[in-house]
C-alpha cells in the first residue's frame, strides 16, 4: 500500500523497496489489497494508484496470472462509501447526489469507466471480475472463486460469516459515524495541504490520536437515489450494473 499511497517524489524509492522485498519471496505470491487502495487521498487518486501498481508489477521478475476485481451494486456501494466518509465529504459534497455527480472518487462506481482505466494498464485476459453479492450467497463463498482461479483454500470460507452492520438505520437511510477531530479537520481542503508537510511516520501517530476524540454524533444521510444518479453511474439498465472487459462479462 505504501508503494501506491505516496507522493510522486517518494514513489521511485517505495517502488524499489517493494521490488526488493518481492524478490526475496519463493513460490506463487498473492498480493491482496485492502479497500483503501482504490480510495482518493491527499497524495494520490485511485486512478494513479492503479497505474502505479501496473508499473511496479512490470518491474518484478514474475508473471501476472490474474488481476481479481470484486464489485458491488454501484448505487449501494457508492452510497455506502458516502455514508462512511460523510464527516469528511460533507462540506464539499453536502448530498449523495452531489458526491456522485462531482466527485472523482465516485467515478470508480461507474464500472464502464473503471474497467477502461484498469484495462488501459492490464490486459483484459488477465482481469477476472466477481460479484460481491453473488459470492456472499454461495455456500462455499470465496472458495468457489478460488476454485475458478485454479487454486484451493485449506477450508471453506463464507464472506459474510460473523459480519453484522452496526450502523443505525431508518427507512430514509443510514446514520453516519460519529465525527472525530481528524475527520472534522480533513473536511477543510487547506488542512489536506498542511498534511503533505508532515512526515508519514509522525502523521500516522497524530492521526490515531485525533481519530479517537469524537466531537459530534452521527447524522442521518438520506438515501436519495435518482434516475440522474443512475445515469451518471451508467446503471440505467440491470445489464450495465455488471462490469465488462472487452467482450467478456463475468457473472459469478
Can you give a write-up of this model?
- Helices cover 42% and strands 11% of the residues.
- The chain is of the alpha+beta class and 252 residues long.
- The protein has one domain.
- The longest helix is centred in the N-terminal third of the chain and has 16 residues, at 8-23.
- The protein is globular, with a radius of gyration of 19 Å.
If you compute it from the alpha carbons, what radius of gyration comes out, rounded to the nearest whole angstrom? 19 Å
Straight-line N-to-C gap? 27 Å
Our count of helices gives: 12
The largest sheet is: 3 strands, antiparallel
Give me the secondary-structure category: alpha+beta
Provide the fold topology.
Blueprint: H1 8-23, H2 46-59, E1 67-71, H3 74-84, H4 86-89, H5 96-102, H6 111-119, E2 127-131, H7 132-137, H8 142-149, E3 169-170, E4 173-175, E5 179-180, H9 181-186, H10 189-195, H11 200-212, E6 214-216, E7 220-222, H12 227-232, E8 244-245, E9 248-249
Parallel strand pairs: 1-2
Antiparallel strand pairs: 3-4, 4-7, 5-6, 8-9
Helix pairs in contact: 1-2
Brief account:
The protein is an alpha+beta fold and 252 residues long. Helix content is 42%, strand content 11%.
Keywords:
single chain, 252 residues, alpha+beta, two-stranded parallel sheet, 12 helices, 42% helix
Amino acid at each position: 500500500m505504501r508503494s501506491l499511497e505516496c507522493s510522486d517524489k517518494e514513489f521511485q524509492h517505495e517502488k524499489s523497496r517493494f521490488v526488493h522485498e518481492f524478490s526475496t519471496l519463493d513460490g506463487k505470491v498473492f498480493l491482496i489489497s485492502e479497500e483503501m487502495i482504490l480510495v482518493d487521498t491527499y497524495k494520490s487518486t485511485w486512478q494513479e494508484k492503479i497505474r502505479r501498481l501496473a508499473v511496479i508489477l512490470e518491474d518484478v521478475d514474475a508473471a501476472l496470472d490474474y488481476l481479481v476485481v470484486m464489485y458491488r451494486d454501484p448505487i449501494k456501494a457508492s452510497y455506502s462509501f458516502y455514508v462512511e466518509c460523510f464527516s469528511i465529504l460533507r462540506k464539499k459534497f453536502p448530498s449523495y447526489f452531489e458526491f456522485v455527480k462531482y466527485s472523482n472518487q465516485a467515478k470508480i462506481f461507474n464500472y464502464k469507466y473503471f474497467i477502461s482505466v484498469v484495462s488501459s494498464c492490464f490486459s483484459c485476459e488477465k482481469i477476472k471480475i466477481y460479484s460481491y453479492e453473488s459470492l456472499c450467497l454461495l455456500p462455499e463463498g470465496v472458495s468457489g472463486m478460488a476454485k475458478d482461479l485454479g487454486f484451493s483454500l485449506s477450508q471453506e470460507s463464507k464472506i459474510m460469516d460473523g459480519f453484522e452492520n452496526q450502523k443505525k438505520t431508518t427507512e430514509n437511510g443510514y446514520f453516519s459515524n460519529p465525527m472525530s477531530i481528524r475527520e472534522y479537520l480533513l473536511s477543510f481542503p487547506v488542512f489536506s495541504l498542511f498534511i503533505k508537510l508532515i512526515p508519514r511516520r509522525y502523521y500516522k501517530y497524530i492521526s490515531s490520536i485525533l481519530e479517537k476524540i469524537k466531537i459530534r454524533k452521527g447524522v442521518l444521510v438520506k438515501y436519495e437515489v435518482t434516475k440522474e444518479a443512475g445515469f451518471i453511474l451508467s446503471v440505467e439498465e440491470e445489464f450495465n450494473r455488471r462490469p465488462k472487459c472487452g467482450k467478456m462479462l463475468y457473472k459469478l
